[in-house]
């Protein structure tokens, strides 16, 4: 692009307003991944891009809420597997200044079960020292834990 074009791009046109080509380029950049006339025809691009932007903002809060609930469910299952109450586990980690957020705790429970087991053991020990420990040994019906699995030969 020429230097003069860059300098003059946002200047008003003689008939009022701004150059429409910049608006077209913006919509073209936002519609690059659509197929057919949705990508090439400007009038259809406008409707498609605006609908996509509207849907992305509407579903953002629902997506956050869904993943937050999924995160909580996974952590509750992992805590019950190790005999710890979920709320007490989080409170114990907070009192001991363990600064790991719930997302990382979930990933530890899935991919690093021994590390998560050590955090649960630390939580149990802290609760026993402060005499607030209640054993959560009841496994919900239908929940498959590592203790119930048969070792592979």
TrEMBL record:
It holds the Pfam family Ribosomal_L20. The keyword Ribonucleoprotein applies. GO terms for biological process: translation. Belongs to the bacterial ribosomal protein bL20 family. It comes from Lottia gigantea (Giant owl limpet). Keywords: Ribonucleoprotein, Ribosomal protein. Signal peptide: none annotated. GO terms for cellular component: ribonucleoprotein complex; ribosome. One of its GO terms (molecular function) is structural constituent of ribosome. This is 39S ribosomal protein L20, mitochondrial.
